[in-house]
Write a structure and sequence with these properties.
nine-stranded mixed beta sheet; six-stranded parallel beta sheet; globular; 38% helix; alpha/beta
Length: 552
């Protein structure tokens, strides 16, 4: 399994792969280029036609429900049901679900239900996928407040489940929300199997026990040695646009000569923003659309070099520790606010490391002659989750800061160091539309920073190198680097192809169920040994940890 494999590797393995990629000593072919396989085409059209003939009767809905383009409220024959659980730590789950929808649309109509576990990201999430949702014959969403019963209704959910050719939970983590109660109830009432996918590399524990044998886990995640897994290659099939992103961000930064611009991509978690310390150099500290001068605060050691902590725990690891504490102590009160400012922590965050690399590490700009002969070069870092309060308070599409100096922080002392002559660096807080990501990444430098499943996959298949350990899903980052360094990107299964095979290939279906059950049984035995008894003796917390894949 991907996570187990990654955990067994030493940190030097990932470091070696990264070093080889940066120095150019590893030049593997990039998987999933335009024109490669990956589904669609005439084969997908034929599949859609064949599934239409064998589908159950169309479902009908009363007026007023969210049914798009269906005459008299009827759903098209042969539709596939996708249900997406959206956790409160970002919208990566939603993008995963959207990718699943797009991949399945290549062979069948799709019905999409989205289940948010928090009110906080509901509005932002629905805005993000509005175009995709509007293209579907039926689309609905619910929050933890109204639930599936309130938004969709149990009768309608049961008819949707029974009428779909196949049902996918993509992604889903059992044990973490009340939404799973009606899902498992309907699956049991219909006695209909379903496919369950997690975000890359996560587990689902003994799924065949707690779903009564109806649920089958489909492996996801990066692979290096032929182990089960798979990632979405949707970025490879995305259309290109004519947008000149270098010109656009040069304009936003007040740079006239676009030939001097190097564009960089830094995609971090939104809830990590407070760890990235800046000092605004404006006296009044106002928020406006004007470009503001800033200093980047960077912790350094006695030699003046940046301080990093390779052993620093990610936010995900910190949250997991709290779950285990709660399992052993019912009085423990967990907190989701686990980020710490780098000045307080005493070690540099990822943005400081990224900026330091751009300024001082030749590997970041290898192959780019600009700046080598003393001519002015302008580096623009596009970072959608930096300066978000400033950007939103200003009501605009972007907020741009020019970093004119480093504040080198060592203990209680701070040394101000201006950028070298001929160097200019901007940090632009702006979102890049999902439909533009392929064209945008094609115009950025090779070195990037990403966090999360989709941004990492986009970077890898666009031949980028994510150089810095992310603050989540570190094992997946390591596996992706190893796959790229060893020329194994083409061998990583295409998750879209896997899902389509589960709709139309009985042999693939039987194989997937058999392998899922074998893994579920194996994990259950491990958990019985760990907890000292069968599932009937486990505490509610143990069941949560088991279903969420945190006990094996």
């Amino acid at each position: 399994m991907a996570l187990a494999w990654a955990a067994s590797q030493t940190s030097s393995s990932a470091a070696g792969a990264l070093s080889a990629l940066l120095t150019g000593s590893a030049e593997p072919a990039v998987g999933g280029r335009e024109g490669d396989g990956g589904g669609g085409g005439s084969g997908a059209t034929a599949s859609a036609a064949s599934c239409a003939t064998a589908a159950p009767s169309p479902e009908k809905f009363e007026p007023g429900t969210v049914a798009n383009g269906c005459a008299a409220g009827e759903l098209p024959a042969g539709y596939v049901l996708v249900m997406t659980q959206v956790l409160p730590d970002g919208l990566g789950d939603l993008i995963f679900g959207e990718n699943a929808v797009h991949e399945l649309q290549q062979l069948a109509p799709v019905v999409w239900l989205r289940c948010y576990t928090s009110e906080d990201n509901y509005a932002a999430g629905e805005h993000l996928i509005a175009e995709t949702a509007s293209s579907l014959p039926f689309s609905a969403s619910c929050s933890n407040q109204d639930g599936l019963q309130g938004s969709v209704g149990m009768d309608r959910l049961q008819r949707l489940w029974a009428g779909g050719r196949e049902c996918f939970l993509a992604p889903w983590i059992f044990g973490l929300s009340t939404h799973e109660v009606p899902v498992l109830r309907v699956a049991g009432q219909c006695r209909k199997h379903f496919w369950a996918l997690t975000e890359y590399g996560r587990g689902m524990g003994n799924i065949h026990t707690y779903t009564g044998g109806l649920g089958a886990k489909i492996p996801t995640g990066w692979t290096v040695e032929g182990e089960p897994g798979g990632v979405f290659r949707s970025i490879c099939r995305a259309p290109k646009s004519d947008t000149d992103w270098c010109r656009l961000f040069a304009d936003r930064s007040g740079v006239a000569d676009v030939s001097r611009v190097r564009l960089w991509w830094f995609y971090s978690r939104k809830d990590d923003e407070k760890k990235h310390d800046f000092r605004f150099l404006d006296e009044d500290g106002r928020c406006s659309s004007d470009i503001r001068k800033v200093a980047k605060v960077v912790p350094v050691g006695s030699t003046g070099k940046i301080i990093t902590d390779p052993a620093e725990k990610t936010n995900g690891e910190k949250l997991a520790e709290q779950l285990f504490q709660a399992a052993g102590n019912p009085d423990f009160k967990p907190t989701t606010d686990v980020s710490c400012a780098e000045a307080t922590a005493g070690c540099a965050g990822q943005l400081s490391q990224f900026i330091w690399g751009i300024l001082f590490d030749e590997a970041y700009t290898r192959g780019d002659p600009r700046g080598k002969a003393g001519d002015e070069v302008v580096d623009i870092i596009v970072a959608p989750n930096i300066f978000t309060n400033w950007r939103e308070a200003d009501g605009g599409t972007h907020a741009t800061a020019e970093m004119v100096q480093l504040d080198l922080l060592r203990g209680a002392t701070c040394k101000e160091e201006a950028l070298a002559k001929g160097r200019r660096l901007f940090v632009c807080s702006a979102k890049v539309p999902r439909a533009e990501m392929r064209s945008f990444l094609e115009q950025t430098q090779k070195v990037v920073f990403t966090t999360g499943d989709q941004s990492l996959a986009e970077a890898m298949f666009m031949d980028k190198i994510p150089v810095i350990k992310p603050d989540a899903k570190v094992q997946q980052w390591q596996l992706a680097l190893m796959a790229k360094a060893t020329g194994g990107l083409d061998a990583v299964p295409d998750l879209g192809e896997v899902m389509r095979s589960l709709v139309e290939d009985p042999i693939a279906q039987e194989k997937a169920r058999r392998e899922s059950k074998a893994l579920s049984d194996e994990l259950e035995l491990q958990m019985i040994a760990k907890l000292g008894g069968p599932p009937s003796t486990w505490s509610p917390t143990h069941h949560v940890l088991s279903r969420a894949g945190m006990l094996g």
